[in-house]
Structures are given as structure tokens and as C-alpha cells.
Amino acid sequence: MVLDGLPPIAGREAEIQAVVQRPALVAAPHSNLRLETLRSAFACALHMHQPTIPAGADGGLISHLQYMQEHPGEGDNHNAEPFAQCYRRLVDILPRLIAQGCNPRIMLDYSGTLLWGFEQMGRRDILEALKRLATDPALTPHVEFLGTFWGHAVAPSTPIPDIKLQLQAWQHQFAAQFGLEALGRVKGFSPPEMHLPNHPDTLFALVSALRECGYRWLLVQEHSVENPDGSPLSREQTLLPNRLVARSSSGEQVSIVALVKTQGSDTKLVGQMQPCYEALGLDRQPLGDRTLPALVSQIADGENGGVMMNEFPPAFEQAHRRLAEGDGSTAAVNGSEWLELLAAEGFRDDDYPAIQAVGQQRLWQQLGGGQGAAALGAAIDALQRSDPGFSMEGASWTNNLSWVQGYESVLEPMQQLSAQFHAHFDPLVAADPTITATPAYREALLHLLLLETSCFRYWGQGTWTDYAREIHRRGEALLANPG
Fold first, then answer.
1. Cβ(111)–Cβ(455) below 8 Å
2. Which positions of the chain have pLDDT values less than 50?
């Protein structure tokens, strides 16, 4: 759905909030799994994303997928149509497996920019496939859509006031394309780039916003978290649900359940269905005085690279056929289904081990009994002086890449545009919440969310930072002359 040439990223906040905060179970009532028969399980997610860039006719905003199609001779742009087929192919694979007596599961994470791009390109074949996956009662027990940031922003360097805007924009987009009922089943969250903030106030803002937007759990990368004493998670602990605790500089706390994605070559692991074969060799894990089946969790790009384009479909089908021929003690599962099944057996969030973002134990030690943003900042400065390797930039599945150093030309405009946006619109929205439905608000919000897209840093200096500068220029012009 495109309104006034803009994506549907705002204007239905109260309606959407009412839907996502419903306390009902979304997966367990339709599950055919029984925990008591299981030794182990695995959960796989596919991450799908293409950014929006100012590279269309007359500089128009278009999906990078469209740009790839229109410029097939550049780089690997010849993969545009194979990528497009990757975005829709589960609608063919899952019914085939179900008809063969298999019990497949898959979690899907589509960025808001990609979903909008399908609309812009008129790719009804992809959108109709995704709508069937999201709404067909024969398929919904096998598919879980995960929420994410609309603009594929990395949370640690996203301005705190924009974190909830990114979450809400994605919920608006998903609801517009697949319906409110489908949105009500989206309870898991997939952070772009698996990037988890470890700055206490940013993490607190993220977890608070997730809870406010109705999310019950999120995926985290193994090395982005630690135990409260600063020790890394044990291998056995990664096979359990954990409880991510976020503590702000003022001492407030909020928590959310986390499923732990292990380290490794993500596309290769998922592309060859290694999580399934690992799970086959695992047994139940102790938790308190009880046991629960071990869970192997993984996520990978759903389209990127030869493994995912070519090897994943037959490997996915082969793995599920093997499970169907087995003794039933290992199963594929989706995240919300898993947690709801555990809840039905009496497990509660507080039963799961508490974890925190990596590096925080050292920070709390340095902070001592101090509280407040100033004391926290002083503690971070002191740690960085004594250890130049200490970082509060967060951690991700691309830990060899800094999302901050060298990108001041993008980060400073992001902060500036965010401040301008909120200075102009926050008083107006407070006085009249319907302002968020106006084209002026949505167009300014669009440019703010797009400027925060991770790709403008991931792909390095040059064309991609030029795209960011142009989006920033247009966003500033909109706020200088708001409609």
C-alpha cells in the first residue's frame, strides 16, 4: 500500500498498539508439537533486506532491488531476479513439504524498506506469496514473521527517540500489506545486523520500546551478551531461553526473553541446515530442577550468496524429510511457538538465566554506586582511557566492522535531522496525534528513517555515503519548509 506516493509508516498508532498488546497466545494453540516427546529442536530465521536509495528517475527514491534490475551490468546486479525469487520461494517449498508429511518451520525477517520496495516495483507475485505465508491458516503454524526496524537501522547508533519510530513504522508497513490479524502474531524481534546496544541507556530504550510495541522476545548474537558476572555464556546456556536485562543509568530495569544465535558462518550454517543436524545430536538441558529440550537458534541472509540462493532450498527440504523419517525426538520450531509451549509447561520468564549486554559488568564495577548519565559517561571515559579496546558501540554479527568510526559524515547528519524532526513534530503530535497521518509528517519521517539505514555505512565511503548525504539534504529541506 502506497499513500500519496509514501509508504504507510505512521498514522495508525492507537489502532496498532491495541492489536499488538493483546495478551493472547499466537502460536501454541495451532502447534502440533509436544514438549514431552522432544529431546531437542532448532529454529532458523531468514533475514531479507534491500535499502531504499535516491537513484531512480530524477533522483527518485527506489528499492536497491529495482536499481539492480535496471543496471544488470554493475557488480552482482545480475542477481536481482534470483534475489526476487528468494523472497517468495517459501510459498512453494512449505506446501510441498507439508503434503509429504513433513512438519517444517521457518522464521522470516523482512525490512520495511524491502516490503515497500515490492510495492513500488509492482511485484505482486512476491507480495501475494508473503501474504499467503502470513495469513493462510494452512501455512501460518509453520511460518513466523519477525519484526525489525523499518529502515534497517543499527540500534546502538540510532538516536534514542527514533528507536520506537523505527519499530512502529515497520508495524504500520506490515499491517498495511498483510493485515492487523497477521501483525498480532508478530511477537519476536530480529535486530538488524544482530546489532545489540551495550550502552545502558540505549539498550534500556530499545528493550522498553520493544515491550511497548508488544514484542515478547528477540534474537541476540552469542558474543553480544554476557552473564551478570561478566563471563561468557556457556554452550549449554545458549541452548536455553535467556532473559536479557537492561538497566539504565538511573537504575531502572526492564527485561525481555532472548533466544541466542550462536557464532559461525551464518549463511553456510543455515544454507546447509547445520542447526538441524546439530540438534539431532543434543539432549534435554537442565533448568533448575527440571529439564527442557535443547534449542539451536540461527539466522542468516535469506538471499545473499550462492549458498543461500542455490543450496538452501534442497538442504531445507532434505533436513525436514529426515526429521519426518526419524523418531520424532527432534523437531523444527519457531520462536514464539517454542516459548509459548514452554509457558504451557509452567516455565516463566523469570526462570530463564539473566544476561546483559557485553561489557556491562566492567561498566557497573567502574560506576560503583553512582547513578545518572553524567556518572555513566565518566565511567565509560575512564574505562576507555585504561583500555582502548573497551567499547560501548554495541556488538553484531559483523564485529570486525565499526558502525561508528569513520562515519561521522553520516552519524552527525543523522543526529541533526533527528533533533530537527522531533523539535518540529513532537509538540504538534502532543497537541494532535492525528498529525502522524499527514503527508508532511510521513514524508519527513521517511527521510529520517532512511538516513539511519545501516547500508550507508556497511558498504563504506563513496556512493553509499553520497546517498546518505542526499537523503539528509532532502530531509532538512522538508523540515525547513514543512507542509
1. no
2. 1-2, 397-407
